[in-house]
Design brief:
FAD/NAD(P)-binding domain; elongated; binds flavin-adenine dinucleotide; binds iron/sulfur cluster; 7 helices; 335 residues; five-stranded parallel beta sheet; alpha/beta; 2 domains
């Protein structure tokens, strides 16, 4: 009899975990709460660092899942788990030989940072909103005109004790660089500013992209945090900041303010962790058993982790981790 492993979440982590399990002759079942597979990638346009369309990656993964004959349950939310079973919101129980949790992250709600007026003022949007606009092929101000001056603000809902999010979300600096470049391609005459606390270019090719953004696209990087935003009478957004390199206060009107929102712990983590006795980090992300020798294992035997459920990660890191999680879960199930 084939071993059966339950994979919770059908984002890139869940799909890659299931594909690897199937390759090894194990029978995976993906349980996804949304009506379709893909996770956050469904909302992204082109991916850093290569500008590959997100749709291309998604289509390839979905096709492979389909061709492998992997069982997929969509619109099925997991509300409780144990090492050999999960409970769904509709009361059903699924049984398996082990469980991989690949439930990802939740986007920070920018309206919590009231000082930036997200959801109140026109032309204040988030990085996720901008990805959607790129996908819809309609990037414009609220009145339909083209932006002439655009500001990106880094670290919104990350590295911020006031909103209980002390961690760095890791991917938003490079997302800000990528989106700034996309805006310059669409609006070559526009002035684009990125306001940052630190620039964190952790991955291969990222530092090169950051340099290209400055040298080829003439994007301005200003070290300083925007303290507040306010609407102007002509529908623009006035921002106040301090340039912390020169020590000078700065005030400017922009046509668009883009808030680079962070990746925070999945809202479901607390409930799932409590029921199964899983440890969580102070950030709310699930805590691996050992950061060096067991980073895809939980503290409970038979429950494993893949992807952004344990920390902010890029897609490449998520895919690699999913492969490792599948191997660990299969080994456990066979034992
Ligand atoms: C604005 C932004 C842009 C980004 N752009 C890039 C990029 O260009 N390149 C790159 O490498 N990375 C990028 N990333 C990072 C990328 O989004 C993550 O690496 C990736 O989404 C992690 O995949 P995941 O499967 O772990 O999580 P997710 O994508 O969050 O998928 C988790 C899945 O689990 C499901 N789920 C959650 N809870 C349950 C439950 N209780 N029951 C059942 N299903 C559940 C969800 O519905 C979802 O489908 C970006 C991140 C942000 C915030
Ligand atoms: S990656 Fe950059 S923008 Fe994101 S939290 Fe870290 S320092 Fe801030």
């Amino acid at each position: 009899m084939k071993k059966r492993i339950i994979v919770i979440g059908g984002g890139v982590a869940g799909m890659q975990t299931a594909l690897r399990l199937a390759e090894q002759g194990v029978e995976p079942v993906i349980v996804e709460k949304e009506p379709e597979l893909g996770g956050k990638l469904r909302g992204w346009h082109v991916l850093f660092p290569s500008f590959t369309p997100a749709e291309e990656v998604l289509t390839a993964l979905r096709r492979r899942v389909n061709e492998s004959g992997i069982e997929v349950l969509t619109s099925a939310e997991v509300v409780g788990l144990e090492p050999r079973s999960v409970r769904l919101a509709d009361g059903r129980e699924l049984h398996g030989d082990s469980v991989v949790v690949a439930t990802g992250f939740t986007l920070f709600d920018a309206s919590i940072k009231e000082e930036y007026g997200y959801g109140i003022y026109d032309n204040v949007l988030t990085s996720a909103d901008l990805e959607r606009m790129f996908n819809e092929g309609r990037v414009a101000r609220a009145d339909g005109t083209a932006p002439r001056r655009i500001a990106f603000l880094h670290c919104v809902g990350s590295r911020d004790e006031k909103v209980c999010q002390q961690h760095c979300s890791k991917v938003c600096c490079i997302t800000g660089v990528k989106q700034a470049m996309e805006m310059k391609k669409l609006f070559p005459e526009a002035d684009v500013f990125n306001f940052y606390m630190d620039i964190r270019m952790f991955g291969p090719g990222y530092e090169e992209m950051y340099r290209e953004a400055q040298q080829k696209y003439n994007i301005h990087f200003v070290r300083g945090r925007i303290s507040e935003a306010a609407p102007t009478i002509d529908g623009r957004v006035q921002i106040k900041a301090e340039d912390t390199l020169t020590g000078r206060p700065l005030r400017m009107s922009v046509d668009m303010l883009v808030l680079l929102i962070g990746m925070r712990a999945n809202d479901d983590n607390a409930r799932l962790a409590e029921g199964a006795g899983l440890n969580r980090a102070s950030s709310g992300f699930m805590a691996p058993r050992d950061l060096f020798l067991g980073n895809v294992c939980s503290n409970v035997g038979g429950i494993f982790y893949a992807g952004a459920v344990t920390a902010p990660k890029s897609i490449g890191e998520t895919l690699n981790e999913a492969t490792a999680a599948a191997d660990a879960a299969a080994k456990y199930a066979e034992a």
